[in-house]
UniProtKB/TrEMBL annotation, chain A:
SUPFAM superfamilies: Sec1/munc18-like (SM) proteins. It comes from the Eukaryota. This is Vacuolar protein sorting-associated protein 45. GO terms for biological process: vesicle-mediated transport. Belongs to the STXBP/unc-18/SEC1 family. It comes from Agrocybe chaxingu. InterPro entries: Sec-1-like_dom1, Sec-1-like_dom3a, Sec1-like, Sec1-like_dom2, Sec1-like_sf.
Automatic annotation (TrEMBL), chain B:
It is found in: Golgi apparatus membrane. Belongs to the syntaxin family. Residues 157-219 form the T-SNARE coiled-coil homology domain. This is t-SNARE coiled-coil homology domain-containing protein. The lineage of its organism: Eukaryota, Fungi, Dikarya, Basidiomycota, Agaricomycotina. Residues 1-22, 56-77, 287-307 are annotated as: Disordered.
Length: 645, 307
């Protein structure tokens, strides 16, 4: 269940076969996959002396080299490969595909292979990016050009569905799992994806012919919309923090915007496989990280004293120096990298007043709640970036969607007065419509049922270790239920054909897939569960049955990518998505009956709500005006053109 | 820095040596290992120079020195790969060597201990046997000592010089080792750095590619602009030609037909006038003519008629 190892073996197999000088050709999809699992030096040691993209048209002809291609089974890559085979630039070709290759595609390739240079064609199911041993990503960050949702937030974009299905199939095939499938009931997308995967498993039954395990593995398909809180929070553990504040792209971090950075550190790699310090600390909280980094630096200093020229007095010293120097140099590079990175993180935390914001955020995300006034203060405070204000209000809206609609409207107005653009402020309502409490199936804040309230109160009694990491993602609760065998079939049903006794068995291997992107915080949860489920749940699981977990998602989100996803998706949704959720108005009387005290605030809120929606109209008017301006511009242009000719 | 350190270090070792010089064996062993070290050094050195010759070969017929072609990139990567391999090998070699030396030294020490132990037993035995032997031994010992002292006195001429040479040899070999090391470490990519990322390397080629594309666009622009230039030149030529025509054609017309179009209007009038005049003259001329002719005709007619 280690995806990094799985992909690594695939890559090693690929480059090992012809033992002579080789070229490795990749496409845009497979490049990050190979990059995350292999390094340039491992490739060099296998005599891969050139790596290039297959769509690079001006590669030189090198008939003395042999070529290994690792490509996606997409049309673009196949077309590029056909062009390549028609005019082969290298001596021999070994073709590997990242997914199931259709017969017609093979026929096309055979026709293109006029010079008979192809020696081998194989499918290596490494169609996903292995980010951590227990986390894979399909690397499809939703954007306006690559949407995830169709015309509503309950339907798939057909291309995205296809890719997600292919990605999951590849994961299953590379790990040799033939799972039964469960999905989150609130999400029609999860069900659709589950059906697609099951259909693929059934139609490629010869591929999925593995040795049967006693209990079949489980594929659990979740929807991001059931937990919109986790990707919105500021993060306080190393890897998640770097991703939130700087962004990790395929194991690389861009530091070029850091003031006063050295040139060789303007971009760094950050993966657990190549960096031992990061491997040890990627789950550590920011405070712990500081102390361990200090120790690390001291260790380096001690060694640098030993490597000092004045410390070398004898031949034995010299020999030691020669032996240890490469490692010492590596250590030096690593130390300066992490020092720069952590320095930048703490600078950003300071600059954006993240400690203050983070504390309130954590309160909003857990059962503790947060005072309306403190949120109001932070929103009006200068020095807090507009982006953080928006996140804060979003969290507040999610938390108090039903109880304090008036406050939400007031906060949105405050946002507008405090440097947040209208376009951004509208997203609060988009979020409520897409992932509000009516869309979610579980009690995210454990505020609704008495039992949950009691449990959270108990937790509160135990005390909190760290104010900034008290939030646990919703996934952890789901996993806890799963470990106990109490995951309800009503909310996480099986797909048809799973068998009647499926619900009674406890699976050994669980693959969790999150539609709409997962986060590093959830990856951390999964990793902790894998290491020690008893500690991860504060002792509420007593007999861990040795369940192994693997988490995956369409991408790995940070708050900005999540909000960008909402923004780009909302454009295609019906325009009502920008309106305040209906229940705030229509459900108000019922709410009033239940909770008497809210009445006043609701009454006060009404104008605020309407004002914001009125501003929506303004935006439309702006759009109209823009359209007219455009038209005028075009007319003008036409006239100009006429004038010039 | 490494050079200086290496030179001071052997000297210090030389001074400390006499204390360690219990047996010639260890000296010999050191010597042999250094020879082997230098020999292997030479091998490594040769590897390194061969690796560097890969790039020099590339420089021998550079296809394009500014733009790194795929061939040069492959060459560079070959260098890197081989350098990493050599570095690895030399490191393991050195480690193995050290372990072997330690083992050997351990053996020697053990042997010596055994010898001493057996010697002590025999000495004790001889002590019990004969006192004269003891004296002889003592005498021979002192002789040996004096001999060795003599040797030390005479030494500078032979042995010390040899040792000095040996030491400079070692220093040299270590300096060359350091150099080899530096050269290799320039070539080898450190793990965990950006250079080690496959994606980064591919992106670099993409950057080259973009550069190439840019160059191509510039080139096409030039080409297009030469086309445009040609066009402009042609148009200019045509304009020039037309201007020439404009200048020369009127002049040619100037000689035979000076009246410009503005003057050409009166002639028509004039001709009209002339015509009118002619007409009038004709009329005038006609009038008297019949007056003069008719009588003749009449006369003729008359005469004819009369004749």
């Amino acid at each position: 269940m280690d995806v990094v190892k799985a992909v690594e073996t695939y890559v090693n197999k690929m480059v090992a076969t012809p033992s002579s000088m080789k070229v490795l050709l990749l496409d845009s999809h497979t490049t990050p996959i190979v990059s995350l699992s292999a390094t340039q030096s491992t490739l060099l040691s296998q005599q891969v002396y050139l790596t290039d993209r297959i769509d690079n048209k001006n590669r030189d002809r090198m008939p003395h080299m042999k070529c290994v291609c690792f490509l996606q089974t997409s049309e673009d890559s196949l077309a590029a490969l056909e062009d390549e085979l028609k005019e082969p630039k290298y001596g021999e070709y070994y073709l590997y595909f990242s997914n199931i290759l259709s017969k017609s595609a093979i026929e096309c390739l055979a026709q293109a292979d006029e010079y008979e240079v192809v020696r081998e064609v194989q499918e290596f199911f490494a169609d996903y990016a292995p980010v951590l041993p227990c986390l894979f990503s399909l690397n499809q960050t939703p954007s306006s050009s690559k949407p995830l949702y169709g015309s509503t937030f309950n339907t798939w974009d057909p291309r995205a569905l296809e890719l997600a299905m292919q990605g999951i199939t590849a994961v299953l095939l590379s790990l040799k799992k033939k799972p039964i499938i469960r999905y989150e009931k609130m999400s029609p997308m999860a069900k659709k994806l589950g059906l697609e995967v099951q259909h693929q498993i059934q139609s490629e039954s010869s591929l999925f012919d593995f040795r049967l395990t006693q209990v079949p593995p489980l594929l659990l398909i979740l929807d991001r919309r059931n937990d919109p809180v986790t990707p919105l929070l500021s993060q306080w553990t190393y890897q998640a923090m770097v991703h939130e504040l700087l962004g990790i792209q395929n194991g690389r971090v861009d530091l070029s915007k850091v003031p006063g950075i050295q040139k060789e550190l303007s971009e760094i790699t950050l993966t657990t496989t190549t960096d031992p310090f990061f491997h040890a600390q990627h789950l550590a909280t920011f405070g712990d990280l500081g102390t361990t980094l200090k120790d690390y630096v001291q260790k380096y200093q001690k060694r640098s004293l030993a490597q000092n020229p004045s410390a070398i007095n004898s031949i034995a010293d010299m020999k030691r120096f020669v032996e240890e120097y490469p490692e010492f140099r590596k250590l030096g590079g690593n130390v300066s990298k992490h020092v720069a990175l952590v320095g930048e993180l703490s600078r950003l935390v300071d600059r954006d007043k993240l400690l203050e914001v983070g504390e309130v955020e954590q309160g909003l995300a857990t059962s503790a709640g947060a005072d309306f006034k403190t949120v109001q203060e932070l929103v009006t405070k200068t020095g807090v970036p507009a982006w953080n204000k928006l996140r804060l209000v979003m969290l507040y809206a999610l938390r108090y969607q039903k109880t304090q609609t008036g406050n939400i409207a007031t906060l949105i107005n405050l946002l507008l007065n405090n440097g947040v653009s209208r376009e951004d402020a509208r997203l609060v309502y988009v979020l409520l419509n897409v992932a509000g409490s009516d869309q979610r199936q579980d009690d995210l804040f454990s505020t609704e049922s008495l039992l949950a309230k009691g449990r959270s109160a108990l937790k509160g009694l135990k005390g909190v270790e760290n104010v900034y990491t008290q939030h646990t993602p919703h996934l952890s609760q789901t996993l806890e239920n799963l470990y106990r065998g109490r995951l309800k079939e009503t909310s996480y049903p099986f797909l048809e054909g799973a068998g009647a006794s499926a619900g009674l068995q406890r699976p050994q291997d669980v693959i969790i897939f999150m539609i709409g992107g997962t986060t590093y915080e959830e990856a951390r949860t999964v990793q902790l569960f894998n290491q020690d489920p008893v500690a991860a749940t504060n002792g509420s699981i007593l007999n861990p049955a040795g369940i192994r977990l693997l988490l995956g998602g369409t991408c790995v989100h940070n708050s900005s990518s999540y909000i960008e996803m909402l923004r780009s998706a909302a454009v295609k949704f019906p325009p009502s998505v920008y309106d305040p959720p209906p229940e705030s108005a229509s459900n108000a009387p019922i709410l009033n009956l239940n909770l008497g005290g809210v009445n006043v605030s609701l009454g006060g809120s009404a104008p605020g709500v309407y004002r914001t929606s009125g501003e929506g109209v303004n935006v439309q008017a702006d759009g109209l005006r823009d359209g007219v301006m455009n038209l005028l511009g075009k007319v003008k242009e036409g006239v100009d053109r006429l004038a010039t000719t | 820095m490494s050079c200086r350190a290496s030179q001071t270090a052997p000297r210090r070792n030389a001074t400390s040596r006499p204390s360690q010089l219990t047996s010639h064996e260890s000296v010999l062993k050191h010597f042999f290992t250094f020879i082997s070290l230098t020999r292997h050094h030479k091998d490594f050195r040769r590897c390194q120079s061969l690796i560097q010759s890969i790039s020099s070969n590339q420089h021998a017929f550079p296809p394009d020195p500014q733009k790194p072609s795929h061939e040069t990139r492959a060459g560079k990567n070959v260098q890197r790969g081989l350098a990493a391999k050599v570095q690895d090998l030399s490191a393991t070699f050195r480690k193995k060597q050290r372990v072997y030396m330690e083992k050997l030294q351990g053996h020697a020490a053990k042997n010596q201990d055994l010898l001493v132990a057996s010697g002590a037993v025999s000495l004790r035995g001889s002590e019990g046997m004969n006192a004269v032997d003891d004296d002889i031994q003592a005498a021979s010992h002192t002789r040996a000592q004096s001999q060795s002292q003599l040797l030390v006195h005479e030494g500078p001429s032979h042995e010390l010089q040899a040792r000095e040479r040996e030491l400079t040899e070692i220093a040299k070999s270590i300096a060359s080792l350091a150099e080899l090391f530096k050269d290799l470490s320039v070539l080898v990519i450190d793990q965990g750095t950006l250079l080690d990322s496959v994606e980064y390397n591919i992106e670099q080629t993409a950057v080259y590619m973009e550069d190439a594309v840019q160059e191509l666009t510039v080139a096409t622009r030039y080409q297009k602009s030469t086309g445009k230039r040609k066009c402009i030149f042609l148009l200019l030529l045509i304009i020039f030609g037309l201007i020439l025509v404009l200048i020369f054609k009127p002049r040619r017309h100037h000689a035979p037909a000076p009246p410009p179009p503005t003057v050409s209007i009166p002639p028509s009038r004039r001709t009209g006038i002339v015509f009118d005049l002619m007409m009038t003259t004709c009329v005038l001329r006609d009038r008297p003519a019949p007056m003069s002719e008719t009588p003749d005709r009449r006369r003729c007619h008359g005469s004819d008629r009369f004749q």
